[in-house]
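Training component of the fellowship. As part of building independent skills, the fellow (R.M.) carried out the full modelling exercise for a liganded target. The chosen ligand was NDP. The inputs are recorded below so that the supervisory panel can assess the work.
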Amino acid sequence: MPSTLNPRTTSYEFLGPLGALFITLGVPLGTYLLFFACSEESGGCPPTLVPAHIFAALSDGAWWKGLWDTQATLLYLGWYSFCLLSWAIIPGTYVEGTTLRTGNKKQYKINAFPTFILALGLTLGYIYLFGPQSFTFLNDKYPGFITASIIMGVVQAVACYAASFRPGALLALGGNTGNHIYDFFIGRELNPSIGSFDVKTFNEIRPGLILWTLVNISMVCSLAVRRGGFANVTDSLWLVVLFQGAYVADCLYNEPAIFTQMDITSDGFGFMLSVGDLAWVPFVYSLQARYLVFTPVKLGAVRIAAILLVKLVGLYIFRSSNSEKNEFRRGANPKNLKFFTTESGSKLLTSGWWGTCRHPNYLGDLLMSLAWSLPTGFRTPITYFYVMYFAVLLVHRQRRDDENCERKYGKDWKKYMELVPYRIFPYIY
Ligand SMILES: NC(=O)C1=CN([C@@H]2O[C@H](COP(=O)(O)OP(=O)(O)OC[C@H]3O[C@@H](n4cnc5c(N)ncnc54)[C@H](OP(=O)(O)O)[C@@H]3O)[C@@H](O)[C@H]2O)C=CC1
Ligand SMILES: CC(C)=CCC[C@@H](C)[C@H]1CC=C2C3=C(CC[C@@]21C)[C@@]1(C)CC[C@H](O)C(C)(C)[C@@H]1CC3
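Fellow's submitted model of the complex:
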């Protein structure tokens, strides 16, 4: 029911209910498809399976049964419980989020980084004691883990959607259209919580993001087993695993930074975020590392240096632009950057990174994503899927942010767009 607190949403994103339905079916299918399109099981990357083989497999019940793995499901449940327990047990300070429409502020427990360190420590200790062959199961049982994580995502999305109809629930401004398919996909309730436990932030940065690093470590173990020890693991795989591990560590170390991001301040928690966080992130983002297990690539010093350069330039743009904005939002301006004050009282930077384009942090993030694919070489475009998907996601996200800011700042945002005409790539886009 629309109300003053929860007005009816009158516009759609993602091409409305049809687009939402397409992505709802496409994300789980795409997660499996990327596995079968790029794996040893289907003959490599790209696969060598001909359509006749594919139809034969699909009409075979045993193939479908292979998507379910009871052991993988139990291990996944164990992993999810570990994350929940760590959140509850590991001490952490409480930090306030942004002000909600109700005038209240949520309190979030900050202990994602110690959870990551604990998970990493236990995993590395286990590998040290029992050898690399003891930790290849995430790679060996990949489709089973995909299924388990999708089920977890769907169950949570359904539960949160049902719970969002209780009286008093604060809904996302974009998730109350009244169309069940669309609202279920985009997320109806803004901050589903159980007591002080916030479902959305927990899922966004813990069970999926940390699992991504563990899946990558499992790939290193798989290659170590194949090649007779960690010393023979290829430089390309080490590079991918270190780059992506550092990205995850950076996010978890800066946990409070996510409380001002669009997903947390504006989006509801629906299918997009639950299955995106729990299945898509760990099992699609680890594609490059998985590929490098069955297609080892030796880079050598020159190519490592070139890839490092791309990564470091990306990291520099990502970090320095985010710091400029974060410091400025905290009331500091150590570089004396130019800004103007909007009618709402909030200020917008017009020089430094935020004067070159409206989303310099996206540019840095994109460059880093390219550096995660370059180590796989150029034998297949499939290992560049992440870069392509990420470019589409960020272009779309930038447009959504422009719309949100226009709603927030009105004609002041138009003035900012005139002063800073480029969206992501200075002088290009
Ligand atoms: N790896 C992955 O899969 C993904 C990674 N990301 C990354 O997440 C990060 C966060 O992205 P996101 O939440 O989209 O957005 P940003 O962190 O870029 O924040 C956008 C907000 O910044 C404020 N802002 C915009 N322009 C200015 C300015 N000139 N001066 C001061 N403040 C300004 C506005 O909010 P206000 O004015 O209210 O402060 C605006 O809504 C990005 O680095 C992105 O690359 C995102 C999606 C997926
Ligand atoms: C269509 C589809 C597959 C949608 C799902 C999108 C989600 C996978 C992403 C939406 C925003 C995300 C963010 C991160 C991970 C991917 C999702 C959930 C993020 C946690 C990755 C780490 C970064 O440092 C981050 C904290 C900036 C980032 C926040 C947004």
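The panel noted the following from the submitted structure. The mean pLDDT is 93. The pocket of NDP (ligand 1) is lined by residues 261-262, 325, 328-329, 346, 348-349, 354, 359, 361-362, 365, 393, 397, 401, 404-405 (CB under 6 Å).
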